[in-house]
Amino acid sequence: MVLLVWVELYVEYDPKMLLPFLRSSQHYTLEKAYEVCATKYLLREQVFILGRMGNSKQALAVIINELGDIEEAVEFVTMQHDDDLWEELIHQCLNKPEMVGILLEHTVGNLDPLYIVNMVPKGLEIPRLRDRLVKIITDYRTETSLRHGCNDILKADCVNLLVKYYNEAKRAVCLSNEDDARPKRDAMVVFFCCHAYHTTCLMDSTETNTSGKKETGATSEELYEYEEEDADDNGSEAGDPQMRFCSQKFSGRRLGFAHLVLAHIDGHDSFFLSRLIIRLNVVVPQLMATYILYILISIVNGVANTVLPVIKSASSAPNTMLISGISLDDNELRHGRKNHDDQGRQEPSNRFFFILLRTNVRSFQLQIRGYLTFPQKYIVNFKYWGGANTSSPIFVYPGDEAGSIEGIAIGAGFMIHLASRFKSLLLFIEHRYYGDSMPFGYKNIAGQNASTLGYLSSTQALADYAQLIIDLKRNLSAENCPVIAIGGSYGGMLASWFRLKYPHITLGALASSAPILYFDDLTPQNAYHETSESCYSTIRQSWFEIDRVAEKPNGLMNLSSIFNSCMPLYSSEQLKWFLGFVYVYSAQNDNGSSVRHICDAIDGAPQGSDILGKVARGINASFFGGHSCNDIFEIKPNNGSAWFWQTCTEMVMPIGHGENDTMFQASPFDMEEYTRTCLDLFAVSPRPHWITTEFGGHDIKSVLGKFASNIIFSNGLRDPWSAGGVLYNISDTIVAVYTNEGSHCMDINTPSTNDPNWLVEQRDNEMNIIGGWIEQHNAELARKLDTLRAMKYSPEFSVQWLQFMVMVLLISFTGTVSGWFNIPRLSPTRGTIIENPDLQSFAPVSDDLRTFYYPQTLDHFNYQPQSYATFQQRYVMNFKHWGGANGSAPILAYLGAEALIDNDLAIIGFLNDNAIHFNATLVYIEVNNRKLFQLYHEEAFKNASTMGYFTSAQAIEDYAEIIMHIKKKLRAFYSPVIVIGGSYGRMLASWLRLKYPHVALGALASSAPILYFNKITPSGAYVSVITKDFREASETCYQTIRSSWSIIDKIASRSNGLSTLSSKFKTCKTLQDSSELKNELENMYAEAAQYNHPPRYPVNMICGAIDGTNEKKDILGKIFAGVAAYRGNRSCYINQPTNVSEADVAWSWQICSEMVMPIGIGKNTMFQADPFDLNSYTKECMRSYGVPPRPHWVTSHYGGHDIKLILQIFGSNIIFSNGLRDPYSRGGVLENISDSILAVHTVEGSHCLDILREKESDPEWLVKQREMEVKIIKERIAHYHADLKASLIKQ
């Protein structure tokens, strides 16, 4: 408030100094300052404040419309680093000719001038346009000349570096266990050209020339001239291996990489060899350094025979870059004792290898900028690993806010302990924006504003970990090795969330001191109260006494003297903050003595000591005391901290304390003040409910009890954060392990000989639980492999499936052309091309429907300024049959697919037909492709910048927020939600249940091809089912269709052939290429098979027309008869004019970004061969949208591989329903995964048939399918109500 007065004073008396003041200070309220500046019409000050508030577009409008200074506008936009702002600048200048001209002059180096020229309205007269264009061309030539000059300099530098590399490659490093300058015969020599030899081997090599004749033998002393090692290596202890540089002086034949001599070396030698890699990286190309590092890893682990396969897999993964290998001495301790073998020889030291992975900046947003990568550091310890062949586990530490990952790797002694017991590999991953894993290259750039910090979030970090683990397991051929995530504090929260969100990647999690339920005050009251009542009372009284003394003359000087402050105190708040920090830190990290030392000092103060004197003695006895003076500091929120950013966006823990329940002064949490602080620091508002929406928390026992598994929540009850931890068992496999005397993350710290018995027992308990997980996993894996082997040799399997599988494999692996780019739409009715209203009879929309709009957040997973934009998302509700919130009546939620919900309201009948059976209210939610249209209108679908927000992950979060909003508005907190979708919507329904079990009790996923990704299902499976459908309908029809393609090509190759085909098929316009006709026929056959619904059965309709045609008609005449029968009487049939809908464009975008289903055509089908080709697919997507597809993203984020092994112990209450005549059914779940994840399918069914409206003509098998689905849902809801009743009675 005082600083706001300064603003007013500057405005009134010295306006010129106001702007420097605003820039130098951060302690004024932005909104109030803006109001003052707006009142006085201070424009540049308004621009600055608007920029600080994140209102960049409004600031830009002030510059252009009020100041009229285009040069300042260009400078402002350049400083913002925001592509969208450039677009805004151009649009605002288009109607101002002079500004357009100036803009052309000042955008060289920022924008392509041609882009601006193309956007200028026709007829707009721009002053001095000719001169300006000449200047642009001149500047371009100058820039080109500079680039050529730079390239020449770069080439010269490259040549010089290559010469330097060649000279360095002739040198070698000699390793020896002797202090002598001359190595013995057992020494090892490693050359910078990637060759390594024992001295004896090298001498033998030099004694033999290429003709096999002996040369004069050379001694080891004669072979080398030595140079002293760098000064940083001179500090090695006596007896350590010595490393010297030596000059090559032999002319033996060069050995290839495959002939490299591999020898076993002990831990000390591995230390010096790994240090060598640091030197090699200076002069050796990346791939060479990679080879050497993998050789060292293999030598150290005694698995030299696996070197070449590992190197082959590593070199095939271009996104992995190894930079240096370092071995850190960290002798293993088992309950405080060094681990020795029977002979007393010390175990080799742990080997840690520092590695960088190129990680995507954005994982949930598919704009062009989301494809940027940054180097993410991770550390691997291979010492104890039993190898991929034994399915030995991998223990992962997900990095947290602690910063650099090296310190965590060194101090994580409990993980070393686990590794030695379970023969595991250790992996430590650094969190983005902490340590060296910095997007945009540098910390000052990454943290400069909300636009760059916006990519820092827990969900982005989890996605980083998921992708890194998948890549590492693939490179090590360790796909069957279980992964256990272990973390502490924020890292513990990440570990538990990682298990919940990525059960297909991690088998279990140990979450130590993870306050995932923190909604109460951080009150370390108990530790002090239990230690000493008088200590507790003294501390509680001290706050008033500090304020009383501070108010006196020279009060702060007296307080500085009492507490022996190194620097004079500037306020009493500074002292109180410091004291509070000391108490909290001591309680949080109380190892049994921290709190007691403080209280003993307070209680042991000399008789007559006043309150502040006693407290001062306590501080001197704490971890922060014992010095000549006390450094009394105060940490204030600042915009240079990544953790402050996270607490200002998503990690909103309402920490405060009241008047009577703690030993602190009353300081309740104030959300309004918290928000103001965050706006001042980062110009963003916190999202206080986001964590519980994304990860859950409310009713955690009822939600996770029958859904998740394999999580240990460990806590020490002396830790203040334990108040927000899980302190009771949720199920048999989600358990709480806590100790009354424990403190923060104590169980995962390095074991010590001084550890109390209760801590040793806690760790043993945790290890036994983890061992049970691994044992169960290995048993299930063994059963799976036995089943596969049994199926391989089963006669029954061969008879029933061999012919079909051979056909699918032939379809998948033959041919050389580009692939079927137009992946068929997944909507519940009809397909992408054909418009035939007769295929589906629409029932009238009910009058009971009510339409609502929810202000939905544009971007849930990032926190840039534009992420906070909102749009009105439509949902429709029907309350007719609802039993009400008091009766906990269920909610049936339909998740819109890739189209708008208008048609779905008419044709999707499952909800309305069965609402009366469940006493349910109905809600239909529209998918988020409409939000783009509403936000950007016709611009929404033009490029990746606007379409990047249209992803499945964003859509699922949209649904979750709307469902929780509805339950809150209706006060229906205990009403279970069943989500239902249509095809793509059904995929979203199953994924929503897996990712958000706290939102949806269950899901009905019909015709959901969740396994048609990343080679889980053969690419030709879709087309094989189409072929099977037509062949079963009619063999002659199948043969006719199969023969037609070559005839079409033959006629098209003739003169006037395309005109002949156009006439024969009654095209709406003359064909330009035969592919137009063939594509439409392919789509027609695919659509007929996919939507082969009774009673008309389109496949039979087409084949009936083909077979029923006069036998004298040629093959193409028969084909046309099938087309006419399917499409009805029309004036023309092929290449009809079509209106491209939002849904068509949105689906095209999705298959180019995340929904990459590799549908292709091989031989032995009724189509021409056209297998899926990812390279051609990528080129087409790049041409259309400027972004490459992410073919592995769906399986990385949602899973799919080994789905039965994963979900039989994780997940529940999902029905996967399919009709086996649906081509997409081959990518669906066709067998039960567990007792509550069920597969319901019918042999005669087709796409999404079970969720359409009931009709009297429905066949009996369809009626029974629906009845079975209703029965399963009723049972799940009944179980939920029984559990709810028992829970409420217990409470």
TrEMBL record:
Pfam families per the UniProt record, alphabetical: Peptidase_S28 (PF05577), TPR_Vps41 (PF23556), zf-RING_Vps41 (PF23555)
Which ranges does the UniProt record give for the CHCR repeats? 1-102
Keywords linked to the UniProt accession: Carboxypeptidase, Glycoprotein, Hydrolase, Membrane, Protease, Signal, Transmembrane, Transmembrane helix
Show the SUPFAM superfamilies listed in the entry.
Answer: alpha/beta-Hydrolases
Which top-level group of life is the source organism from? Eukaryota
Known InterPro entries for this protein? AB_hydrolase_fold (IPR029058), Clathrin_H-chain/VPS_repeat (IPR000547), Peptidase_S28 (IPR008758), Ser_carbopepase_S28_SKS (IPR042269), TPR-like_helical_dom_sf (IPR011990), Znf_RING_Vps41 (IPR057779)
Q: Indicate the transmembrane segments per the record.
A: 801-821
- Domain Vps41 C-terminal RING finger residue range list: 183-213
Q: What's an example of a GO molecular-function annotation for this chain?
A: serine-type exopeptidase activity
One GO BP annotation here? vesicle-mediated transport
As for family, the record states: Belongs to the peptidase S28 family.
This chain belongs to which protein, by name?
Vacuolar protein sorting-associated protein 41 homolog
